[in-house]
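Collaborator request, handled under Task 6.
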Amino acid sequence: MLVTGASSGIGAATARAAAAAGLRVVLAARSVDRLESLSAELGGPDRALAVACDVIEWEEQRALVARALEAFGRIDVVVANAGFGAKRGFLNESPEHWRAMVLTNVYGAALTVRACIEELTARRGHLFLMGSVAGRKVPPGSVYSATKWAVTAMAEAARQELHGTGVRVTLVSPGTVETPFYDEPVGGEQLTAEDVSRAMMFAMQQPPHVDVNEILIRPTVQGF
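C-alpha cells returned to the collaborator:
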C-alpha cells in the first residue's frame, strides 16, 4: 500500500491498519522526520518505507512510485490522502494559501492517480481518494469544499476510466475527525482517524468483485 500524506492523521492511521493486516507500506509526505518515526514503529524500511514527496511535484511522484517498486516489487493499493484545509470565507486566507491548497488537494491527487495507474491496472489493485463530507455539501465561504467536490468528481472519473480493468476505486468522505486538521470541530465526540482507516480496510478486504465506491462517514453528533 502506498499512502500519501502519511505523516499524521488519517494517513498514518491507514498505514498502521494496513501494516497490522500484513501489508507492506510506502509512507509519503513532505515531513520525512515523522515518516521515519512511523516507519520505525511499523517495523523499519523492510516493512514500511519512508519517502519524502511533495505531491504537487510530478517528478517527485514518479520517483515515489519508482522507490516503491524498487523496494517491494509491486503496488496493490494506493491511498491519495495528502491535503489540507482553509478557514471559511473569501477574505480569511491568503491567495497563496488557497493556491497551495488547490494544488495539493486536487492537482496532487490527480498526479498520484497518474503516477500509479499503470501499476494498479497491472495488479488489479485498489485506489482510494480522500474526499470529505464537504465534497457532498457546501459550507458558507469554503474554498476547501470546492477542492473536495473536485476530488469527488475525480474518483468517479477514475472509476469510469478503470472500468473493466479489475481496479476498484473508493472515495472516502469523512465528516469531522479528531485530528489537527480541524481547529473548530462540531461539539461532541468526533470520529477518530482510526474510525476512518477501519472503514477503508473494510472496503479493501471485500471480495474482488465487490467495489465499495464511496464511504460517507460522520460522527453521530454531526448535523452538517
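The cover message to the collaborator said: "The first strand starts at residue 2 and ends at 4. The beta strands are 2-4, 25-29, 48-52, 77-80, 126-130, 168-174, 214-217. Please let us know whether this matches your experimental observations."
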